[in-house]
Amino acid sequence: MKKIALAALLGFSFAAQAAHYDIKMLNSNSEGSMVFEPGYLKVQPGDTVTFRAENKSHFVHSKAIPEGAQKFQSEEDQELTITLDKEGVYVYTCPVHRSMNMNGVIQVGDNLPNKEQAEKVVKDLEKKSMTNKGRLEKYFAQVK
Questions:
Q1: In the beta sheet, which residues pair with residue 92?
Q2: Less Cβ crowding at N or C end of the chain, within 10 Å?
């Protein structure tokens, strides 16, 4: 009985430590047009992130995720909350504005088993961008 109570207490303690973050989908900010804010975010396993469409015609779609992680995609103009429980690098895009380099990066933890694969996705997205060149590479450079 004591073991069950201890396990429950530890579970509640872990849940209480998980953090929540918001990423805004915006038409513009100080970084330029069609942008996620923040474009780079570092979180810990178990933390949640909500993508919020602050302006119309945006949605989010995962492009690179660690093995075993759940792909994600929101509906246009809808918020999406995800729990990031696999360590690694998550690269995501707004498909409607991908050519304007509306992309972002989330680093979960310090163990980055998919960093090389994510870097290839970043390079490909940068090549396909017509505007805001270099923005996604700047975000990815913060992954350590």
A1: 62, 104
A2: N
